[in-house]
């Protein structure tokens, strides 16, 4: 039976017996005749693989969003970050100098490709007093910042230690070395200051701005003393990055009560319409995407950090 005769038209194309009666060559020709460019593209291996990967990625993002929402409700993120830096200091006691040298910000090492050093200094501390100072600051500033911005925005602010490391990379000495969560703490301070500027006139905003300013100036003065060992570039960079992000994130944050308040520098109320639902939705999507990117960067940098620590220990550095 020919392909055209047996399959040509009508209801015969759906008759399994007629399809089964075709020889291999006739069946191949019939399938080729009926195949379209669209169907060939859809069933090609690269397209099927890409569609499956996209579906898996979407499922991962949905699952991660649910996990993050549940985690934020169960455990405040500021307390989670505090627990992580304390745990990391405990690991330093086990790994010794290998962990410190593998994760500290060293400008020369960053410039040759060790990008994880822009992130990992946030987990490391040079001494118990160093850890205690930053832990105390995070204990007191963390709840306030998270209450104002929410868990996701808090995570973005906290990881702006990267801003301080970038400023240190740009302006610091080639052989400089820096560790500590103080840049992250200053990022939170900058975020609080930015929020206060954005909501100036709301009860408590001016007091927050005044308090943050005093703490900033005091720390910069202490850090300017010769031999202090304090990374003022990291502090300033974290504060500036946090302040810029704080102004941007203030609108729509849980602590935003400024929809009907005046602009920065003024106490007088001013009518200011809220962002429409589309803008709010886009802002929420941008924050969620940035949060996922932060977690991905943390995971990748930790992987490289751990591998380098193991390598240095294998070479005898303790």
Automatic annotation (TrEMBL):
One GO MF term: serine-type endopeptidase activity
Pfam families: Rhomboid
Topological category with respect to the lipid bilayer: Multi-pass membrane protein
Residue intervals of the Peptidase S54 rhomboid domain: 113-251
GO CC entries: membrane
Biased composition range(s): Basic and acidic residues: 264-275
InterPro entries tied to this protein: Peptidase_S54_rhomboid_dom (IPR022764), Rhomboid-like_sf (IPR035952), Rhomboid_protease_S54 (IPR050925)
Renumbered residue ranges of the record's region Disordered: 1-22, 253-278
Localization (cell): Membrane
Keywords attached to this entry: Membrane, Transmembrane, Transmembrane helix
Biased composition (Gly residues): 1-11
Gene3D superfamilies, per the entry: Rhomboid-like
Primary localization: membrane
Protein name, entry field: Peptidase S54 rhomboid domain-containing protein
Organism of origin: Emiliania huxleyi (strain CCMP1516)
């Amino acid at each position: 039976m020919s392909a055209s005769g047996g399959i040509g038209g009508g209801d015969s194309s759906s008759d399994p017996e007629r399809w089964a009666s075709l020889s291999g060559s006739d069946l191949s020709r019939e399938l080729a005749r009926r195949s379209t460019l669209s169907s060939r593209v859809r069933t090609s291996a690269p397209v099927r693989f890409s569609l499956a990967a996209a579906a898996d990625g979407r499922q991962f993002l949905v699952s991660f969003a649910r996990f993050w929402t549940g985690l934020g409700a169960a455990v405040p993120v500021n307390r989670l970050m505090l627990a992580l830096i304390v745990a990391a200091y405990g690991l330093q006691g086990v790994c010794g100098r290998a962990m410190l040298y593998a994760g500290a910000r060293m400008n020369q090492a960053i410039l040759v490709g060790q990008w994880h050093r822009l992130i990992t200094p946030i987990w490391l501390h040079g001494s118990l007093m160093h850890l205690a100072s930053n832990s105390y600051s995070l204990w007191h500033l963390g709840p306030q910042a998270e209450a104002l911005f929410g868990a996701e925005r808090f995570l973005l602010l906290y990881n702006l230690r990267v801003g301080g490391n970038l400023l240190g990379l740009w302006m610091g000495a080639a052989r400089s070395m820096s560790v500590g969560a103080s840049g992250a703490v200053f990022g939170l301070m900058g975020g609080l200051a930015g929020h206060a500027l954005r909501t100036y006139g709301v009860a408590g905003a001016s007091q927050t701005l005044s308090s943050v300013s005093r703490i900033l100036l005091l720390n910069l003065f202490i850090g300017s003393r010769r031999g202090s060992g304090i990374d003022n570039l990291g502090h300033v960079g974290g504060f500036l990055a946090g302040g810029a992000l704080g102004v941007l994130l203030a609108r729509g944050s849980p602590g935003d009560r400024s929809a009907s308040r005046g602009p920065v520098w003024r106490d007088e109320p001013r009518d200011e319409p809220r962002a429409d639902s589309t803008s709010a939705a886009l802002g929420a999507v941008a924050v969620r995407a940035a949060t996922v990117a932060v977690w991905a960067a943390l995971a990748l940098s930790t992987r490289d950090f751990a591998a380098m620590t193991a390598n240095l220990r294998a070479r005898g550095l303790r």
